[in-house]
Amino acid sequence: MIYLQYAANGIILGGLYACIAVGFSLTWGVLNIINILHGAFIVLGCYITYFAHQLFGIHPFVSLPLAGLMVGILGYATQAGIINRVVGQSVLVTLTLTFGLDLIFNNALILGFTANYRQVVLANPLGTVEVAGIFIPLDRALAMVLALLLTFGLYIVLQMSRLGRAIVAVRFDREAASLMGVNVMRTYAITFAIGAFMAGAAGSLLSVVFPIAPITGHLFLSKAFVICVLGGIGSVPGAAIGGIALGLLESFSASIVGPELALTVAFVVLIALLAVRPQGIMGREDMH
Amino acid sequence: MADTLLEVSNLSTGYGDVQVLWDVGFDITRGETVCLVGSNGAGKSTLLRCLSGLIPATAGGFRFEGREMAGRSPQDIVAAGIAHVPEGRRLFGPMSVHDNLLLGAYLRHDKDGVRRDLDRVLSLFPILAQRRNQAAGTLSGGEQQMCAIARGMMNNPKLLMIDELSLGLAPQVVEMLSETIRAISKDGLSVLLVEQDAITAFELATRGVVLDSGRVRLIDATAKLAENPAVQEAYMGLA
Lengths: 288, 239
Known about the structure:
The complex is a heterodimer.
Chain A: H1 2-31, H2 38-56, H3 60-81, H4 91-113, E1 128-131, E2 134-137, H5 138-160, H6 162-172, H7 174-179, H8 184-206, H9 216-231, H10 236-256, H11 262-276
Antiparallel strand pairs in A: 1-2
Helix pairs in contact in A: 1-5, 1-8, 1-9, 1-10, 2-3, 2-4, 2-8, 2-9, 3-8, 5-6, 5-8, 6-8, 9-10, 9-11, 10-11
Chain B: E1 4-15, E2 18-29, E3 33-37, H1 44-51, E4 59-64, E5 67-68, H2 74-80, E6 82-85, H3 97-104, H4 111-124, H5 126-130, H6 141-153, E7 159-163, H7 171-186, E8 190-194, H8 198-204, E9 207-212, E10 215-221, H9 222-227, H10 229-235
Parallel strand pairs in B: 3-8, 3-9, 6-7, 7-8
Antiparallel strand pairs in B: 1-2, 1-4, 4-5, 9-10
Helix pairs in contact in B: 3-6
């Protein structure tokens, strides 16, 4: 029975992880940019939600669109103004750039918000329900549902909309896409903005679960990285499955071998998976 | 010259330090099919890439419906009514045939017109209607070329530029595609056809431009080019 509890915890965590990873995965898949800034975007989303809650009493799930939008606009400006200058160059160049931007951003966060840990403490928590012997914390479960809805929403946008077609086309063949009249640079900026929006929104949801400090950005970044590679780069269903897989992995390994080793176990599984299925669970070899 | 659609004058371009085209000049009249003939490396594809804005002109320019278009972005050029069916088809392989066709109409906002053109290209190429929800990458070579031409036509262009219509395709497929090109040009669409197979090209086009080492060598009616001994020897495999 205790294993069902671990599974429930893992799935709740995993839904949040999916939302953390999906924007990172999109940026990586479409722009071929490993966005080191992603963790900082998540933390910024957390802070926006935190202060909206502290100063104005706005519930984190209500300020989520605001956090997503603000971080998304910042993402658009970052891509259009800075990263587009080196887009299409080798991963080393773009990685170094986003790494440098992350250093600046991270220090700005520390300057602005200090290095102290903060967490949203809800005035009226929903509490916990017991279903068939499994305890489910309702606020976290609601955060997971919202996270999965956001992830599903992104999937629908990519599959069904004109913008989604343009993003997929640019990803597959940017020159052919521009022959269709797609503005490649603007599509890159919009894609990066969507990734940043998802990071900011994920930050809102995380603020009710985890204590946040600027430094936690790197923790989220490393998780997003693992999930992406687990699930397959650039695939939304892959990020969802990879996220839930990591959540379950962490939940079980935290209970069995101890929480301090949970991320280590995740990386060991990642290395093992890379040896047998390098394209990830949902990844396709022809998409690289 | 009220009916001149495209007017290329003294166009030069290249990649970095490598100049590929020198002082290229020719024009296309509304409704006319013109072919561009030349051997490998003559600069045919480079010329199309320059006309669709993928690479900038280093000198000279080209006017489309009287407007200077050199230096414009590919989006502006697509919006002006030039569609480019690139060499190698360049379909979006993982996307369905339907989505590929919709991407051809990316800049259009006239929903009814797009639906009408979709019906039109699917009746021109009935096989695409059958394959509509199939990933474009799984089509046969001939079907991919049909899909690429149909995608170009979804822009409802005034000028359709086709790079290597027949390359790697079976003779029956080339014959079928040629019929389609004739049909659409009869509807008033201008076509600029790049073709290594001069015999096919001369059958389809009324005039031909012969490119050699990046320069225009000859411009003439295709009937006359076909009788020109130098052209016969160089491009038609006849001595």
